[in-house]
TrEMBL record:
Signal peptide feature range: none
All residue ranges annotated as the DUF2383 domain in the record: 7-116
Superkingdom of origin: Bacteria
InterPro entries given in the database record: CHP02284, DUF2383, Ferritin-like, Ferritin-like_SF
Protein name as it appears in the record: DUF2383 domain-containing protein
SUPFAM superfamilies: Ferritin-like (SSF47240)
Amino acid sequence: MKKNEKYINSLNSLLIMNAEVEKIYMELVDKVSDEDLKKFFSDKAMQRHEFTKDLKSKIISLGGSYDNKGRMHSELYKFWMNIRNFVMFNKSEESLMSEVRDMQGLTINRYNELLRMLGLPLSICKLLIKQRDRIQDAKDSIERHDLIAYA
């Protein structure tokens, strides 16, 4: 496997994850009643959409092609099901936000795994750090119960 191919495959995996998280956020926009939560989820969905556009651009710059139609990561599936349970059974918003925070933690870990790859081009490192830090900011805002700060 060529060096760039390894990076392209990893970026495609991250692309799929961001596309799936975007879908989760969009579903939540339609399901929650609290206006602050609606705005938070809508903003996070748009943010993940931008992340996927930037990742597609990097994949192309490496000479690859992108595929964001892959199957959902098994770890994300657990969050998807828990969030659906929230929606179906009207569990507390606190438990929903706990799931969202954990989902963000999972995606941060995926970013960190990719950032540990040896020889990753600097421009990709910078993009991944920027995206990871924005996800971390949102996660921190949930932990502080301050959704407006990073909405």
